[in-house]
Design brief:
This protein has 18 helices and 21 strands. It has about 525 residues and is an alpha+beta fold. Helix 2 runs parallel beside helix 5, helix 12 packs across helix 13 and helix 13 crosses helix 18.
Length: about 525
C-alpha cells in the first residue's frame, strides 16, 4: 500500500487511527459502533451494534428479517459465520411451478425464507462479545423509538421501494408495509424524521431473550400467526429449527495475499475463482482505469460467476465442487478462454441484492467483516404487524429449473449474493472489506483486491476508483467517470457497453487495513451516506 500519495490535494483521504475503527454506509450506525469500541467493546460488539442500527436507519436495504454472514479475525485465525435461513418445510419447487411460476416470485410469502440475522447477532456475541448484548441493540432501539433524520442516499432508495417496488402489491400480506414505511402516504424525504415504535420493541425483545423470542417465543408466535392468516408458509417448526453455522472460510492465494470468503451457499467463491484466472496477467503494468484492466476483469468474472450460478447451492443438501472450482488447474483451463474479444460465457465442468456491509477493528487486533440483507430493497414487502419486522425475499435466489443444484426444496438454503471479504498476508491479518449490491458483490471484491494488491492503493482510493459490472452475456455497465476512451475501447472489443444509470448499480463498499505497526487505515464508500470513524 502506497501511503506517499495521501497528501495529494483533491482526493478523498482515508482515515488513520491506532485504537480501533468502524466503517459502514450510515454515519449514525458508524457512530454507535465507535461508541461501543470506546466503551471497551470488541470489534464483534461494534459490528452487532452497527448491524442493529442499520435495520432502522437504512431499512430499504436490510432489516430484522434479514440474513447475515460474518468473517471474524480473532487475533490469530479467521472464523466464518453463516447466518442464512432455510426454505419453509411446506414450500416446494413443484408447488410454485404448478402455480405457473418460472422463477420464485420477488415479493410475497413465496419468497420468504427463515430470517437468520437475529440468531447470527446472538451467536456472534456469544463467541466474541465483551459488552452485554442488550447494550449493543439499545442505540438501534432508541433511533427507532425517538426517530432519526433520513439521509440522502437512503431517502432515494426508500422512495424507490415505496413508489416502484410496492406499486401493484395488494392484499393483506402487504397491508402493514405502508403503515410502517410510508405512514403519511409517501416515503420520508431527506432530513425528515422517521420512527417505528414496533421496531424498537422488537429490538428490545431480541436483546432481552438473546434472540430466542424470534425463533420460539412471542415474536415467533406473531410471525407464524401472520403467515397462517395471510397465506404464508412459515411455521413454528421452521423457526425453532433454525440455527447459524460456524464454517471454515475458503481462500485463494493472489500474488502473496490470501483472499478469504465464506464458502457456499454464497457467491464468494466466484471472486476467488476470478482472481485465480487473473493471477498470471500483469495487472500491475496497467492503469487501474483502462480498457485492458477492465476487459480482463470483466472476462474473468463472466467465467467465474457463470460457474457459480451453475454449481453453487446449499452444501448440506447437494455436493458443491468447491475444491475443484478453486483449483489452479481449473483456473488455467478457464484462463485459456480469455482473448482480445468479449465472450459469451458458458459454465465449465470443474470435475473434468440491496444490502448493508460493515467492518470493525478493535485495539486488541480483532477484526470483523459483516454483511446482512433482505436481498431486494425492503425484501418480500411482507411486514409482521406491530413488530417492524420486514421479512426477506431470499427465496428468490432459488432456481425452479428441475434438477438444478440450487432448485428450491424444503429446509434448503438458497444461493446467496451477500459475501463478506477478508485479506491476510503471511498468516497476518490485513483486514476486512466488502462491496454490497447483489451480483455486483463478487465483482466488487475482485476490483478492490486488484486495486489494493496490484496497484497499491489505500482503502479509500480503492473504493473511489471507477467501477464496472457485468450483467449478462456481453452486457457491461461502467461509470461515467471511467471516460469515453474506456467506453469506446470496450465496445471495440465486442462488449455491449452502457453507462451505469446510478451509483447504486456498481455497489457500495467499506474497507479497513492494518499496517505493520498496528495502525488502522480505513475507507468508506463515496457512493453512499457512509462514514469511517476511529479513535
Amino acid at each position: 500500500m502506497d501511503l506517499s500519495t495521501l497528501a495529494e490535494p483533491g482526493r478523498h483521504q482515508p482515515l488513520l487511527a491506532a485504537n480501533g475503527m468502524v466503517a459502514t454506509s450510515q454515519p449514525l450506525a458508524a457512530a454507535a459502533g465507535l461508541r461501543v469500541l470506546q466503551d471497551g467493546g470488541s470489534a464483534a460488539d461494534a459490528a452487532i451494534a452497527m448491524a442493529a442500527c442499520l435495520t432502522v436507519v437504512e431499512p430499504c436495504s436490510n432489516g430484522i428479517g434479514s440474513d447475515a454472514f460474518a468473517l471474524v479475525w480473532d487475533g490469530a485465525r479467521l472464523h466464518g459465520l453463516n447466518g442464512s435461513g432455510r426454505a419453509p418445510s411446506s414450500l416446494t419447487a413443484d408447488r410454485l411451478r404448478d402455480a405457473g411460476h418460472a422463477t420464485v416470485p420477488l415479493h410475497g410469502w413465496d419468497a420468504v425464507t427463515v430470517p437468520g440475522t437475529p440468531r447470527a447477532w446472538a451467536d456472534l456475541h456469544a463467541r466474541f462479545g465483551r459488552l452485554p448484548f442488550g447494550r449493543l441493540l439499545e442505540p438501534a432501539a432508541t433511533y427507532a423509538e425517538e426517530g432519526f433524520p433520513v439521509s440522502p442516499v437512503v431517502a432515494w432508495g426508500w422512495r424507490g421501494g415505496v413508489e416502484r417496488a410496492h406499486a401493484g402489491l395488494a392484499g393483506e400480506p402487504f397491508d402493514e408495509f405502508l403503515r410502517v414505511f410510508a405512514p403519511d402516504g409517501a416515503a420520508p424525504a431527506v432530513g425528515e424524521q422517521w420512527r417505528s415504535p414496533g421496531h424498537a420493541a422488537t429490538l428490545r425483545e431480541i436483546a432481552a431473550t438473546r434472540a430466542d423470542s424470534f425463533y420460539e417465543g412471542d415474536l415467533a408466535e406473531r410471525i407464524v400467526a401472520h403467515a397462517a392468516r395471510t397465506g404464508g408458509h412459515l411455521t413454528a417448526a421452521d423457526l425453532v429449527g433454525h440455527a447459524s453455522e460456524w464454517v471454515e472460510p475458503i481462500s485463494t492465494d493472489y500474488r502473496g495475499y490470501d483472499v478469504w470468503e465464506i464458502p457456499p451457499n454464497g457467491q464468494g467463491i466466484a471472486a476467488l475463482m476470478a482472481l485465480n484466472i487473473l493471477e498470471h496477467e500483469d495487472i500491475a503494468a496497467l492503469r487501474p482505469v483502462s480498457v485492458q484492466a477492465f476487459h480482463l476483469g470483466i472476462e474473468a468474472l463472466k467465467l467465474s460467476l457463470t460457474d457459480a450460478h451453475r454449481h453453487v447451492a446449499d452444501p448440506a443438501r447437494v455436493e458443491v465442487p468447491t475444491a475443484e472450482l478453486l483449483s489452479k488447474e481449473y483456473a488455467a483451463r478457464r484462463r485459456r478462454l480469455l482473448g482480445y474479444r468479449a465472450i459469451d460465457p458458458e459454465p465449465g465442468n470443474p470435475r473434468g441484492s440491496d444490502t448493508v456491509y460493515l467492518c470493525a477493528a478493535d485495539r486488541n487486533g480483532m477484526m470483523v467483516s459483516f454483511i446482512q440483507s433482505n436481498f431486494h430493497g425492503f425484501g418480500s414487502h411482507v411486514v409482521v404487524p406491530g413488530t417492524g419486522i420486514a421479512l426477506q425475499n431470499r427465496g428468490h435466489g432459488f432456481s425452479l429449473e428441475p434438477g438444478h443444484p440450487n432448485e428450491l426444496a424444503p429446509g434448503k438454503r438458497p444461493f446467496h449474493t451477500i459475501i463478506p471479504g477478508f485479506l491476510t498476508r503471511g498468516g497476518e491479518a490485513v483486514g476486512p472489506f466488502g462491496v454490497m449490491g447483489g451480483h455486483m458483490q463478487a465483482q466488487g471484491h475482485v476490483q478492490v483486491v486488484m486495486d489494493t494488491v496490484d496497484h497499491g492503493l489505500d482503502p479509500q482510493a480503492a473504493l473511489d476508483q471507477s467501477r464496472w459490472i457485468w450483467t449478462e452475456g456481453r452486457q457491461v455497465l461502467i461509470e461515467p467517470a471511467a471516460g469515453q476512451e474506456v467506453f469506446d475501447g470496450l465496445a471495440l472489443r465486442g462488449h455491449e457497453v452502457a453507462l451505469a444509470p446510478t451509483a447504486g448499480h456498481v455497489g457500495r463498499g467499506q474497507a479497513i487495513w492494518r499496517l505493520g505497526n498496528g495502525t488502522y487505515v480505513g475507507g468508506t464508500e463515496p457512493r453512499a451516506d457512509g462514514a469511517v470513524l476511529g479513535w
